[in-house]
Description:
There is one protein chain. The two termini are 37 Å apart. Helix 9 runs parallel beside helix 10. Helices cover 19% and strands 30% of the residues. Strands 6, 7, 8, 9, 11, 12, 14, 15, 19 and 20 form a ten-stranded antiparallel sheet that branches. A hairpin with a 5-residue loop joins strand 32 and strand 33. By secondary structure, it is an alpha+beta fold. The chain has three domains: 319 residues, Beta-galactosidase, Chain A, domain 5 (Distorted Sandwich), CATH 2.70.98; 199 residues, Aldolase class I (TIM Barrel); 80 residues, Immunoglobulin-like. It binds (2R,3S,4R,5S)-2-(hydroxymethyl)piperidine-3,4,5-triol. The site of (2R,3S,4R,5S)-2-(hydroxymethyl)piperidine-3,4,5-triol has 11 residues, from loops.
Amino acid sequence: MDIQVKQQGNDGLQFHLSNNSVSLVIETVTDGYIFLRHFGKKINQYNASNWAQFIDRAFSPGPYADNRCFSLDTQRQVYATSGMGDFRYPAIMISNEKDMGLDLRFQSYEIIEEIVKLTGLPSSHADKKAAKTLRLTLVDDVLAIHVKLFYTVFTDTSVIATHVEVTNNGTQPYVIEKIHSAMLDLEHSNYELIELAGAYAREKTFQKTPLKQGLMSVNSRRGASSHQATPFTCLATPTTNEEQGEVIGMHLVYSGDFEAGVFVDQLQKTRMFIGLNHETFHWNLAPKQTFTAPEALITYTNQGFGAMTRDMHHFVSNHILNGVYQKALRPILLNNWEATYFDFDESKILALADKAVEVGIELLVLDDGWFGKRDDDNSSLGDWFLHEKKLPKGLESLVEQVNEKGLQFGIWVEPEMISVDSELYRSHPDWCLHMANRDHLYSRNQLVLDLSRVDVQEYLIDAMSKVCTSANISYVKWDMNRNMTCVASALRQYGVKEISHRYMLGLYRILTSLTAKFPHILFESCSGGGGRYDLGMLAYMPQTWTSDNTDAVCRLQIQYGTSFIYPVITMGAHVSAVPNHQVGRITSLQTRGAIAMAGNLGYELDLTQLPQIELDEIEKQVQTYKAIRPIIQQGDLYRLLNPTTTPNETAFMYVDKDKTAAVITYCQVLAQAESPTVVLRLKGLDETASYIDMETKKSYGGDELMYVGLTIPLERTDFYAVTFHFEKC
Length: 729
Ligand code: DGJ
């Protein structure tokens, strides 16, 4: 890892950030203009092989009366502004009543021998000596606006972390109308844009579109990163597959409204960007104030989607996740939601606990319905005290009994919400997001608390601390079941378009406080499944409930898309009942087990209603998972067959870091007549070693499994999945 600075000519500086895999080259040119020269494969030295061409382009204005060739509109910029001759999509817009436009020129730089953490926002972390940061200061002398760009390069990953700080050093107030966290101007547009789109119960659907001239945007304006979009995009050269092809990725470490995408210009250059969604954001920047935009990550590989995935998994595990569970194996849980919904009492929960212990499950989670008078989803959010009719002996007594059986205990909460039918709403009707002169808009019959308010933040820290200390709680599932409307605060303390970002800052403050107070608790984030599965939440809560859709076949797509960028250890995956509650499909217990074992395994069905033969099978699954859990949760993921290219077949494998063990899962959706033989060529093994199939005890060479392949026995049945476990001999 290195940051080189080279003087070139009288007024030019070249900054070259690199490590073993990636290089980022930035140059200052005449009069403090600053351009991007390279982002991509690591090079030893940059000597301007792709020298900047200055050509007189029609309708592209510039600052020099005697030089028609210089225009910001035609150059690869580092951080583009509006109003100064670049007509493409800007990264930043600032104005006040009298002024607009921002003329940023390079002023100074600093090399910082570590990563710079963001205050009040989630951001990546690294040990000293494992990261270095370049800080560039750009200044608009007329407005006295200073913009600092931070780029951090790490020893162990191609990921570059970047963020932006804006300071008003003048005497006039300004409004930040738009601020992106990362921007890359690329030389050409021969890419496909990849995004993870979707819907409730259909999250993280892989979508690929060739670039076209103009704007292509991936965004959320729902107050959450959302089921519909993911704060990520990547550009891939058209023939990219799992093993080869260039992939440039961008991620935002944020959980609210965002915008990512590309703008392809008239000269077929591509501007890639990610940041806050300017439609729902602005910020009043008073004199002497600084605004920090969320952190973004930029990634590069020329070895296809597989390498991008493994690098991201490594990065998230090592530099985003925090706390005692950062890398620790996760408990196998039983959640009562699909088993009972709201209809439970103490004896039902204890009966589930008995069965859970019998099959080897480690954690029992009490989901929605344990508080207030919540018997359905119409009331009580905000009333975080016990539903005494359901649990008359108290939570502490229930948890003690569960613990005595040998199970840890976890609990569900939805702190950010408020029901109109709640004691909290009756005492604080002004605590929800709302507009004074408009009626509420309901979703699941609930409203959103105004987390931009400090009093609401304090209340939540206190209320959740009481829940966490009310019994021996080992796990908390933090849910969020609606998107935001009428995003305004009764306090009217800030500009209305500040509230959505201030909400996120409030949420992050609450999470910082609670995770510090309760370091032993495993927090799982959830938003009706994967409605807020993003790097911002993962920085506080190291696992996420991937989707409310627990159907094994649907999960193939959802888990494929999710694991494209997020590590498998973060991805909750449960075996549920059949017919499946979301889509009505009947799949075998074996298939449900095999697909749920591809993530962080749990069960979510009424074990007390299952015949002994199924309980025995679940017991076997749990034993198997305990044996392969380190390979899955801490190993490397290789995709062999993808549901996007071969929708009827999916296969993937995990190899532990030392290549001493591997788990392979193959799944056939529908049986075909006269279907071809399937021989899977495995990946990532040690080609000089032999591996033994733990079921058949047959051994094979690593090279044989990778270059000849593993035959999958033909099965004439729909929805079939099988798992193989190999250990090095
Ligand atoms: C949505 C979650 O995704 C479910 O798992 C469950 O916790 C319900 N909310 C409870 O209301």
